[in-house]
Amino acid sequence: MFLSVKKGAILCLMTALVLVLAACSSSNGNSKAPNTSSQEAVTDSTTNASTDEQKLDADATGAAQTTYPIVVSNYTTENGTWVAKEQTFDKAPDRVVANTQGAAELLIRLGLTDKIVGVAALFGNVPEDIAEEFKKIPVLSEGYVGKEVTIGASPDLVMGRGGLFEDTDWGVGTVNSLNEMNIKTFVQSTSVTDAKLDNLYKDITELGEIFNVQANAASYIEQLKAREKALAARASAETINYASFFDNGDGTIGVYNGNGDTFIESAMSLINMHNMLINEEGTLSLEKLIEINPDAMIISKYAGGIDPEQTIEKLLTNKQLQSINAIKNKKIYVIDFNNFWGYGDSIFTGVEALADDLNL
């Protein structure tokens, strides 16, 4: 929403917010803890998911079929760096744990709801057209889920955001440790280093092959590419340089660099938006914000987090920041955390919403 017109990770404290944001960054190569006009153009193909899935299944006999075993080149980490690691599937997985809401939503879109035995990290709104399907999935944790609970769901596949594959209380276990227990893994390539929007299509294609729903995958990619084309047609004539901020939970405002969020940057570039801080590292000060002078500023909203309206009020009344163009012109926007850091198809919903707010 556009907060100048209308005002409006798991605790509301500074530590929790930094945790959520860090999950975003860690999923792009670090191993630390976690941080609609276009849509209307493809309404007929996106708002009736169940009907579409039935049609796709009916058409699947004419599509390519998976011959098992199938080997997929996926990922693991070595010394904090993403490297390739093959996963061999002797058959389609039957019990999948999705470590984020976004991963589960993507599986639902491919007609695989009945394969999901658990989901975690419910930080955003579930799209209305798949809300009933989503309710069928057991929730392992409203926040991030640990390895013990993950294994307790008896999965044969764990998939989702790369940064959550860690042996910690907020992680599902490392790729190697899960593989040693004969549990396959699928790290979304959208969440690893240097990911771009095309990685989303790669993930969907590979999931289609793994689960032998290649017709569903191909059809859904066509729908998403139509949305991509519609967004590109709405791009701003001039680059909109933006920066992200958050609430430290102690009355102060923090600046989020988005370092490594190349998947998000790729999607935002469709409407000619650019994160000015994406190549910055470490903690950033408000002075840095003044120095770069962004045209727009963005804050994410997530379940259990501090109300963005409160943080925006602090921003607008901070005398130190009044020279910033985004504040002078009240170009301050709220985005849904899951849309952007779910690393799935809902990235389009998020960018479409921003395009609407920007009147593109």
UniProtKB/TrEMBL annotation:
Residues 28-51 have a biased composition (Polar residues). The keyword Signal applies. Residues 95-360 form the Fe/B12 periplasmic-binding domain. It holds the Pfam family Peripla_BP_2. Residues 28-58 are annotated as: Disordered. InterPro entries: ABC_Transporter_SBP, ABC_transptr_periplasmic_BD. Keywords: Signal. It comes from the Bacteria. The keyword Signal applies. PROSITE patterns: FE_B12_PBP, PROKAR_LIPOPROTEIN. Residues 1-22 form the signal peptide. Belongs to the bacterial solute-binding protein 8 family. This is Iron complex transport system substrate-binding protein.
